[in-house]
C-alpha cells in the first residue's frame, strides 16, 4: 500500500494540512498516543442522589424583572389595586381591569406580580403599614393594646376587604410591614409580662378581626344602598320588628331601642368586647 503524502510548505516542511487522502496529522507528533477515556456513564444499578425539595416561592424573595415601561412599577400597581379594592371590593379586581387603569396590558403587570393572589398579598402588606402599635416600654399595657386594636379596626374599616382576605386560603403573609407589625405586638405583650405572648396576641386579634369583618360587611351593604347608615337602619327597622314579633327578648329589644348614632353605637360595642377580652387576659399575668 502506498504511503500517504504529506503537504509541504515551500521550505519543504510539513504544514499539517490534509492531503488528498484526508490525512491531516503532523508527522512530528506521536501517532499512537492513547486517546482520553470516554466519560463514565452511571449504570442503572448506581443510585443517584435525589434533588432537594424546591423551596416554596414567595413574592417577597423573587427577583423582579426589568419593566418594559419605566412608569410602571410594583408600587404603582399595588397602589392602584388598593384604590380598586376600596371602591369595588375583591370581586371587581382583575389583572385586566387593573392594567387598563394603568394604561398597560395584563402581560406588563405579570412582569411585576405573578398572580392575583400575590397582588392581594402585596396589597395587604401595604395597608398594614397604616396600623400603629405603641412602644413596648409604655407603662400601661392595656392602654397600648387598646390603641393597637383600635388602629387595626380603623384600618380594616377604611379598607373593608382587608379582614375577609386575611383568612383566605393560599395567601402567606410574609411582607415587611406585617412582619414589623407582628414584631411590635410581640414586644408589647412580652414587656407586659405574658408568659405566652403569642397566645395573648392571637386572642386579641381574633376578636378584632372578627368584629371588623362583620362591621365591614355591614358598612358595605349600607354603601350599596346609597343611603346614610341612619336612614338605612330606619328603613330596615319595621321589617326587623316584624321578624322578631314571636321572639320575646328580641321584640322587647327592638321596641325599647332608642335612636342613636349608628357609628357611636358600633364604637361602644367594639370597646365593650375588647375590654372583656383584656380583662380575661389580665388574669393570666403573673402576680
From TrEMBL:
Keyword Membrane among record annotations: no
Its lineage reads: Bacteria, Bacillati, Actinomycetota, Actinomycetes, Kitasatosporales
GO molecular function per UniProt: DNA-binding transcription factor activity; transcription cis-regulatory region binding
Q: Which InterPro entries match?
A: DNA-bd_HTH_TetR-type_CS, Homeodomain-like_sf, HTH-type_TetR-like_transc_reg, HTH_TetR, Repressor_TetR_C, Tet_transcr_reg_TetR-rel_C_sf
Keywords carried by this UniProt record: DNA-binding, Transcription, Transcription regulation
Could you tell me which SUPFAM superfamilies the record lists for this protein? Homeodomain-like, Tetracyclin repressor-like, C-terminal domain
Task: State what protein this is by name.
Answer: TetR/AcrR family transcriptional regulator C-terminal domain-containing protein
Q: Where is this region: Disordered?
A: 1-71
GO biological process terms, alphabetically, are:
negative regulation of DNA-templated transcription
UniProt entry tagged with the keyword DNA-binding: yes
Which positions fall inside the HTH tetR-type domain? 71-131
Q: Give the matching PROSITE patterns.
A: HTH_TETR_1, HTH_TETR_2
DNA-binding residues: 94-113
The biased composition feature labelled Basic and acidic residues covers 8-18
